Amino acid sequence: MSWPSKMHTTLCKLSKHHWLLHQAKNAKESQQEKKRKVMVLESHAYTSLRATYSESNLACFSREDVLLQDVDADNIDESDPCWQVKWQLSRLIKKIVAKHRLEDAVSGAASSATGGTSQVSTANEREVSKNAVPRVAAHLTANQNRRHPENILSPALQNNLGYKINTWEAPRDSNSFLYNVRLNNGELVIPQTGVYYIYSQTYFRFREPEGVEPDADPDSDSVRNPKQMVQYISKYTDYYPDPILLMKSARTSCWSKKAGYGLYSIYQGGVFQLNMNDRIFVSISNKDLVDMDKPASFFGAFLVS
């Protein structure tokens, strides 16, 4: 082959090689450009996704019914972009409400124990407080400083209800107390209409009158004269002038003349409907036998409902 032919062949090869290199370079640059464009698109998509997510959360919080609807975990609509936000928010609100209710309940119990009042913060607690039965109770013991019948009993009552005990121990110690109840002349004044449990016990002691000698015969089985003992619990009302009997208990006892004295007690109690300003009291049939021993003679009542 001649030299010009060889030169031409060589130039053709160089030109083709240069073209291949140029094509490879262009292909590489095109691939890098595509990669860059993909990265830019991914970045834009990520930014757009974050913005959309943020806007959707804000939209969930701005909905009017977000705090008015209960979220049911078993009935979730995954097509709703707000369901997860509402579910988490609902759980948080329930935890906070439960915590505050527990704190209010503990605070109310502590305040009641110290005689204070608790401010109720929820509708349910206000309803419970409204329906709660107030503390209405009284327990009175005998006044040992006035053991003579003339000092503790009133004149005979009408309707054959004996003699009213008009003197009880003032609530100065733990044995006697008055909670929202007033004591007036031996009568407990009822503060509100309701069902009450009323109770009383009276102590009786029989002593042989002075100057009466016991039977000279120690073997005598004769007995002292029997004594009748009756305890009455009655009430006064604003609608009737005379006392109304609620309940009574009675016994007649005899004992040997060998005994120095006889001791008896009568207890009774019952549930009654009473009206506001009713006045309940205790009376006994035989004023000479009553013994106002503090632990043995008492009178009380408390509100049931």
From TrEMBL:
Compositionally biased residues, Low complexity: 107-123
Binding positions (Zn(2+)): 254
Location of region: Disordered: 107-131
Domain of life the protein comes from: Eukaryota
Zinc listed as a keyword: yes
GO biological process: cell surface receptor signaling pathway; immune response; positive regulation of canonical NF-kappaB signal transduction; positive regulation of extrinsic apoptotic signaling pathway; positive regulation of release of cytochrome c from mitochondria; TRAIL-activated apoptotic signaling pathway
Keywords, alphabetical: Apoptosis, Cell membrane, Cytokine, Membrane, Metal-binding, Phosphoprotein, Secreted, Signal-anchor, Transmembrane, Transmembrane helix, Zinc
Transmembrane region(s): none
Keyword presence, Transmembrane: yes
Main location as per UniProt: membrane
GO terms for cellular component: extracellular space; plasma membrane
A molecular-function term among this protein's GO annotations: tumor necrosis factor receptor binding
Topology class, membrane: Single-pass type II membrane protein
Function: Cytokine that binds to TNFRSF10A/TRAILR1, TNFRSF10B/TRAILR2, TNFRSF10C/TRAILR3, TNFRSF10D/TRAILR4 and possibly also to TNFRSF11B/OPG. Induces apoptosis. Its activity may be modulated by binding to the decoy receptors TNFRSF10C/TRAILR3, TNFRSF10D/TRAILR4 and TNFRSF11B/OPG that cannot induce apoptosis.
PANTHER family referenced in this protein's UniProt entry, alphabetically: TUMOR NECROSIS FACTOR FAMILY MEMBER, TUMOR NECROSIS FACTOR LIGAND SUPERFAMILY MEMBER 10
Assigned protein family: Belongs to the tumor necrosis factor family.
Protein name: Tumor necrosis factor ligand superfamily member 10
Gene that this polypeptide is encoded by: TNFSF10
